[in-house]
Amino acid sequence: MKLEHVGIAVSHLGMSNELFARLLGRENYKTEKVDSEHVITSFFKSGATKIELLESNDEDSAIAKFIKKKGEGVHHLAFNVEDIHVEMKRLSDLGFELLNTEPKKGADNKLICFLHPKSTNGVLIELCQDLKN
Ligand code: CMX
């Protein structure tokens, strides 16, 4: 599976956009509100992969809870898959705990599904499949 992006939870998207633009030497290429996840996201290209900054817009969201408990930082790794239904079945059959029974519509025109960090050495994993336009 190709590493599609690294998700980073941030408290202030504007400030983190400036920080990552300085760090990577380029501006973000997209900002998107994702209602299903209660976040505003910002994407940067970085070599063959991407960095996704995530700011919560709801105090009960997964990102808000994460920051409250652990502070800002790496939140998840996302892997690109050809067929998300096939991968979900494969990983479920292998004993990984899926957090969705059906894929959800995520940021950047993708279908997504998360695996519980308790079943993946404490790392939240996202599967994502490109949606055809
Ligand atoms: N990485 C690693 N561990 C994490 C974690 C993360 N991102 N988020 C939570 N955890 C840990 C918690 O610290 C907790 O650990 P302990 O039991 O040792 O205290 C454990 O997972 C379970 O936590 P919980 O309190 O039972 O459950 P939460 O309510 O915190 O939910 C999770 C955790 C992963 C199930 C939830 O955040 C989730 O469903 N995530 C998937 C959706 C998501 O993260 N959306 C935001 C990103 C959207 C996007 O990319 O667009």
State the order of secondary-structure elements, H for helix, E for strand. EHEEEHEHEEE
Helical residues, percent = 10-25%
Low-confidence stretches: none
Rg, rounded, reads: 14 Å
Work out the number of β strands: 8
Question: What share of residues are in beta strands?
Answer: 35-45%
Shape descriptor? globular
Structural class based on helices, strands and sheet pairing:
alpha+beta
Q: What profile does the largest beta sheet have? A: 8 strands, mixed
Provide the descriptors you would attach to this structure in a database record:
133 residues; alpha+beta; eight-stranded mixed beta sheet; 40% strand; binds carboxymethyldethia coenzyme *A
Nutshell version of this structure?
This protein has helices at 13-24, 62-70, 84-93, and strands at 2-10, 30-34, 39-46, 49-56, 73-80, 104-106, 110-115, 125-130. It is an alpha+beta fold and 133 residues long. The relative contact order is 0.20.
Can you give a write-up of this model?
- The chain is an alpha+beta fold.
- Helices cover 23% and strands 40% of the residues.
- Strands 2-3-4-1-5-8-7-6 form an eight-stranded mixed sheet.
- The protein binds carboxymethyldethia coenzyme *A.
- Carboxymethyldethia coenzyme *A binds next to strand 3, helix 2 and strand 5.
